[in-house]
Amino acid sequence: MRTIPLLLFLISTQLFSQQELDITGEVKEITGAPISFANVVLEGSNKYAITDENGKFKITNIDAGTYNITISFIGFTSFKKTIDLNENVKLSVTLREGAEALEGVTLFAESQEQRQSAKALTINSLDVKKLQNQALGVESVIKQSTGVVVRQSGGLGSQVNINLNGLTGQAVRTYYDGMPLELYGGAFQINDIPVDILSRVDIYKGVMPVGIGTDALGGGINLVSFERSEDYARISYSFGSFNTHRVTVNGNHNFNDNIAISLQSFVNYTDNDYLMRDIPNFVENLRSDGTVASISEERIDARRFHDRFRSSFVKGALRFTDIVVADELEASLIASRRDNQIQNGTFITGLAVGEAERENEAFIGEVKYRKRFFDNLLDLKYHGLFSRIDNKVTDSTTALYNWRGQQLITQNDVGSEISGVPTQREGEDEGTAHRLTLRINLTDDININISEFNNKYVIQGNDPIGARIALGDEMIDPNTIPSTLQSNIIGAETTFKFFDKRLTVFGLFKNYDYSAESIQFNNTSGVTTIPLRTVNSNDNGYGGGFKYQINPKLFVRSSYEKTIRFPTQGEVFGDFAAIIPNFELRPERSNNYNVGIRYTNQFNDSKALKVDLGFFFRDQEDLIRTIPFGPENSQFVNEAFVESIGVEVSSSYTWKNLFLNGNLTIQKLEIAEANSVSSVSFEGSPVPNIPTTFANLSARYKFDSVFNSNNEFDIAWNYFFVDVFGFIPLESLDAATSINSIPRQHLNNVNVTYTMPRQKLIFSLGVQNVFNQEVFDNFSVPRPGTNYNFKINYSF
Amino acid sequence: MKLRNLSKLITKLPVFGLVLVIVISCDDGFNDLEDNNVVQQTSGFVVVGTTASNTALVKYFQDIPTGTIDLTDGFGFQRFVPNSCIDHALFLPRPDGFPGFSKYIVGANGGLFEAGSIPTLNSGSFRIDARDSSYGVFQDRATSDNISIFNPTTMEVIGGVDMTEGFVPDDIAQRYQRFIFRDDDVFAPIRGNVNGESFTSLILHQANVASGQFVGDTQRDGNGVAEITTLNSFGQNLTDPNGNLYITDAGNFTGQGVAAAVNKIPAGSNEIDPGYVFLPAVTLNPTNVFLPTFGGFKVLPNGTAIARVNASVPQEVVDIVLSVGGNLANLTSNQIDTIFNILFTAESASWCVLDLVALTVTPIPGVPPTGVFSANDTFFHNGGIYLPVATQTENSFYRYDWTTEEVSEAFQVTGADISIVVNISNDN
Fold first, then answer.
1. Which ipTM did the prediction report?
2. Chain A: closest CA distance from residue B403 (Å)
């Protein structure tokens, strides 16, 4: 919905001839990112255009003559030029950021992110393009959203857990252009994807449209790739603390109007050798003969020494546009690789992990297809991929290390550092995914979306030192028996607009079909054939919502979805060790409700305010969690009903070159009902290890024409706050101590950017954790103190 | 260069600085402990419950609880699994989940305080037992062939025993499941260290804590796999007034029909008596072929014992077996899974009195049946033993007076599932 009315102004234009000509062009930011939905006005001709999602526009059938062309977009300085039009003209226009507006003109255009965020279902759409100058990973962007907490177990490349509106772990899915992120391999994960290859991040809260997403219980995060259709190349290199280096190379080349190739790639390297303060360290006390008498614990400041992370990713694409069989057809090949050392387990104990490591290699083929029929009445899209992922986990040493990096004299009879049992598992996983979407635009106000998503994984491998199952007289490695997981989700969604588009109503239905097969490793005494077990599930989900535009400045919206999450393979089939299978495990279900109101006011050309207030309620059924099974094992069961309720507030304020943003989330989660009667005493208990209050503030100021009339200087500050929360259930925060809680977190980051558009150079200096405060995202594992990075971007 | 713009930049910087100062002036959000000079409680009860997240809530009561007690406002820990109590102090794996063991005492205000700790290299080290204020033992599973001896008063490691000579099938590394004292000797049942393997017999290693020497080993007369995992109960109370030591195993609960046994080491002997055959679950119900096990075994001062014995086979299990003609060999994997899911959660076990001489088993009337693997740690107080009852309808302790044979419900627990209660007046 356009929130600011359009006033087109017309200036007379003299006509010179009757020849009909075209003006085509593209509009982009200084960073090279395309600007979609910019206004292109050809004064005096009654002709105008709006740029498409690639920043392109075309005005046709113009009489030859002299015209003033104006290109404008909210938040950017307008472009004006006089054109002598006596032949077809092609323009390439770069707009500079700024609130300067055309005199007497109120701009109406909305960015793609703004349009996403203003839909009836609750989406936070974050514009990543504006951050591409900074040396950031995607996780730094995501945590600037309301309702989202990103928790990392260490530095770059470490494990990430995302909490979205109180739901976490498997309940929150991540996607890349609508495909599950895990299909792209270990080198393409939230914690190592540079912002350079994304255009935006869409955070779906509770309700997922049928064209995106799978069995996401609590919503999902879709990373939208950065695509530009004009010729360009962009290289960035950043280096920083802890011997961190990040390189990105992206580009596109058009052979003609129909064929193009593009490249996206990045390489990350870091030693992650940051200092951790006041951590426990074990020391062996020796007898005079050199044997170990006892172990003692000291507190030291120690630098991480076994946390190197390397990853690389390259995607090459061949793209056809406007050909007979397709409007868009793209075939891509992707290769990625990562390897990382492991420095610690869940907690920081007196021992460091000194040898365990992981590797992951992926090869992916991907096809995207789009064809519109009958003057855009039907819009058909297909997105499919095949991935082959090889992975290896090595955790099989008897050596023990302390935090000084010293190997102890004592050997570890268990033979592993983090896994409980030694492992050298090598996996060979294959996955396919297909998404077919048909959009039917019945009228301008009614459309129907039909989508089918099909996904299959085959997981197998070997572990030369892992557990074995007796099959007759033969001992077999259960890892060598392929496990398969297959899901098919078909959905339909329809949207109606009423009352001059002021009221938008949508409804959706999804059918979830799931089957899995794997080897059963328990109760196999006496079996002579491979004991395969199969589980199946078929469930329906549905939802709907509305948005009502009360006036141009104010709208309300509400949405609901009954969602499903399939159990994972490990939850159903166990782990071939302590976790016992549960073939009766049901999918988790959740009833997700959102209510929100948004106020937007453009006071004048240079001042604007936006305030969002949202409430969410999640009613989660059949929560899957582990309980003891027998005297020593455990098993995943459908146990409790969990309710989470929360409020989110976000606001942004723009005044000339000052941009302020802030948001706050307060949420509460508790066990509402237990379906194991022995756990009735749990009802009303808080759900632990989930932050309840968190916020962030950011401020950015842009100085124009610093040192040079075209150069810009930009300073930005980000502050993140997470209040103390228990990693075990706490009745109140009065009971919070260092052994049951994560302390209050304050993180301040500052970034300065200097842009030299003529030289096509951008320099950026970032300082993270400016005040060197102690930050513990995950249990008591310290995150880095003050650290720096410097980034150079060059485009040509 | 436009100095005007540069000067604008500089003038804005203090604004940023001011805001930053405001937002970093917060603390860590914790309430600091005020009392560092802890006065130790010498009596009372430490009640431990398990939360829905499998963490622990712990609360101290000066007097024996009555009515309903609420653990909701108890102290929260990652885990709280006391192994023994000496001099009113609890010895347990570190409650913060870190590798090692702790000694916890109760302060005058009812707070729980760590009074010492011993680190271990292996984070899965789980068992520490104190004999008295002078000796205690534990195993660091990183060094499976060793038992460490410590001083429970000072929490200093004062020695170790090389257990390399102890018999272990296939010579794999062993873990010690618990430590059972008899004077200066300690008996310890073994399992596989890495994968928790069970052996075809209950095997005990014996050491002497005074000399720091390995003494020998003994095992139950081999009659099949003997799962020993239920030996992880709190404390001692395993010796009768005549000095005979009783050590139990759990039999085989994987459907192979080896019943759990009470094994006897006669006074003065270091060997399990092969002639003493006492299978309480079979004695109570000879048709109990799937899960003939028991737990919570304690010897009472009068020479009898108490245990929770799996007494009945649920009708659903009987129906499944009858559906294959009563022949267990015809059961499918799916049916076996179903049977064990039923058995492991069925409330089919009863608290019973075991006559260790007559080899009889007598259910205690008035105490509701429970699941055989639900909480089973008992405690003694004022001439009675308190029996945990965690069922679909109860979360409580019952008191049994072995002299009068009277039974009464002692107290109920809310806020967490019952785990264990420790009477800190009693060394155990």
1. 0.73
2. 31
Which chain A residues are within 8 Å of B157, Cβ to Cβ?
Answer: 293-295
> How far is it, in rounded angstroms, from Cα A598 to Cα B397?
55
Q: A43: number of CA atoms within 13 Å, CB side?
A: 19
The answer, for B19 touching chain A at a CB cutoff of 8 Å, is: yes
DSSP-derived 3-state class of residue B182: strand
Q: What is chain B's pLDDT, residue by residue, as a tens digit (428 residues)?
A: 444 554 454 444 444 444 544 444 455 655 444 444 567 889 999 999 988 777 889 999 999 999 999 988 888 888 899 999 999 999 999 998 888 999 999 988 888 888 999 999 888 888 999 999 999 999 998 888 899 999 999 999 999 999 999 999 888 889 998 999 999 999 999 988 887 777 778 899 999 999 999 999 998 875 555 555 556 688 899 999 999 999 988 876 655 667 889 999 999 999 999 999 999 999 999 888 778 889 899 999 999 999 999 888 888 888 888 888 877 778 877 787 788 778 877 888 999 999 999 999 999 999 999 988 888 899 999 999 999 998 878 899 999 999 999 999 999 998 888 999 999 999 98
Burial of A347 (0-12, 13-18, 19+ CB in 10 A): middle
Name beta bridge partners: B58: B48, B75
Report the 10 Å Cβ neighbour count for A265.
19
Containing H/E element for B15? Answer: helix B3-23
**Which domains, ranges and CATH numbers included, belong to chain B?**
127-231 (2.40.128), 235-376 (no CATH)
Evaluate whether A659 touches A610 at the Cβ level (below 8 Å): no
Hey, what are B331's tokens? 């059961």
Please list every residue in chain B whose beta carbon sits closer than 8 Å to the beta carbon of residue A527.
333
Please judge whether A728 and B51 are an interchain contact, meaning their C-beta atoms are less than 8 angstroms apart. Answer: yes
Nearest-neighbour CA in chain B from A743: distance (Å): 5
Cα torsion angle, A723, A724, A730, A731, sign: negative
Question: Could you give all domains of chain A from N- to C-terminal order, each with its CATH number?
Answer: 15-95 (2.60.40.10), 112-225 (2.170.130.10), 232-795 (2.40.170.20)
| Distance in angstroms between the alpha carbons of the first and the last residue of chain B | 83
Measured CA to CA in angstroms, residue A488 lies from A184, A326, A491, A493, A512 at distances of: 19, 26, 10, 17, 6
Beta strands in A115-197 (DSSP E): 123-127, 148-152, 160-164, 167-168, 173-176, 179-180
In degrees and rounded to multiples of 5, residue B349 shows phi and psi of -110, 145
Find out whether A11 and A68 touch, Cβ atoms under 8 Å: yes
Joined tokens for residue A590: 């959740």
Q: Which of A639, A729, A774 sits opposite B55 (nearest CB)?
A: A729
CB-based contact A640 B52, cutoff 8 Å: yes
Are the Cβ atoms of B250 and A737 closer than 8 angstroms? no
Note whether A697 contacts B416, CB cutoff 8 Å. no
Q: In B, which residues are within 8 Å of A408 by CB distance?
A: 121
